[in-house]
Write a structure and sequence with these properties.
The complex is a heterodimer of chains A (113) and B (115). Chain A has 113 residues and is mainly β. Chain A is built from no helices and 11 strands. Chain A starts with a strand and ends with a strand. In chain B, 0% of the residues lie in helices and 45% in strands. Classes of the chains: A mainly beta (113), B mainly beta (115). Chains A and B meet through strand 4, strand 5 and strand 9 of A and strand 5 and strand 10 of B.
């Protein structure tokens, strides 16, 4: 079954509005990574979170890792048309004992100019 | 210019034929991966390899085969046993797999269509 759930699947926003995507797991995550895939492109690494409660910022992007290490979020402030794409979380799950990354289903962001 | 290359970008095959997708990296990464991407399902791991001459099955290995004879290369064969092979295939690489996980670098992908 799906180890990492991501919501929403789609999000349409007006340019300038904020956007948030959420990643959740029923099990504890070792760490979580976020990737962005532009339309027609391939996933590109954005950031990795490792510590409980960790918050990292990249310009208008804010990434959070939950205190229980079971969820994460990506928030974009004042979206721009260049933010268009699909955002994926990817996590390594402690209980599996494996080194694989489990990818969420992604959130496709559309920004309306 | 370092990176990962996949060829071809688009591939068409008749049903029942095996097809091999290439993946080459010059990043000196030890680990390489193959993912399949279908609409609305994110990325699913097919096979991965941590070192030369060794590889492991991922979540959806049935109907696929791989080899890792060289550090730089990790070709994927989609066999006729794969029931629904039409998809976007992504190859990735990273430094040796460890916790915390190293970022993965993705190739441009191959879109396979089986007619």
């Amino acid at each position: 079954g799906q180890q990492v759930m991501q919501i929403p699947q789609y999000q349409h926003v007006q340019e300038g509005e904020d956007f948030t995507t959420y990643c959740n797991s029923s099990t504890t995550l070792s760490n979580i990574q976020w990737y962005k895939q532009r339309p027609g492109g391939h996933p590109v690494f954005l950031i990795q979170l490792v510590k409980s409660g960790e918050v990292k910022k990249q310009k208008r992007l804010t990434f959070q890792f939950g205190e229980a290490k079971k969820n994460s979020s990506l928030h974009i402030t004042a979206t721009q048309t260049t933010d268009v794409g699909t955002y994926f979380c990817a996590a390594q799950i402690i209980q599996t004992g494996a080194n694989n990354l489990f990818f969420g289903t992604g959130t496709r962001l559309t920004v309306i100019p | 210019d370092g990176g990962i290359t996949q060829s071809p970008k688009y591939l068409f095959r008749k049903e029942g034929q095996n097809v091999t997708l290439s993946c080459e990296q010059n990043l000196n990464h030890d680990a390489m991966y193959w993912y399949r991407q279908d609409p609305g399902q994110g990325l699913r791991l097919i096979y991965y390899s941590q070192i030369v001459n060794d590889f492991q099955k991922g979540d959806i290995a049935e109907g696929y085969s791989v080899s890792r004879e060289k550090k730089e290369s990790f070709p994927l064969t989609v066999t006729s046993a794969q029931k629904n092979p039409t998809a976007f295939y992504l190859c990735a690489s990273s430094h040796v797999m460890r916790v915390p996980y190293n970022e993965q670098f993705f190739g441009p992908g191959t879109r396979l269509t089986v007619l």
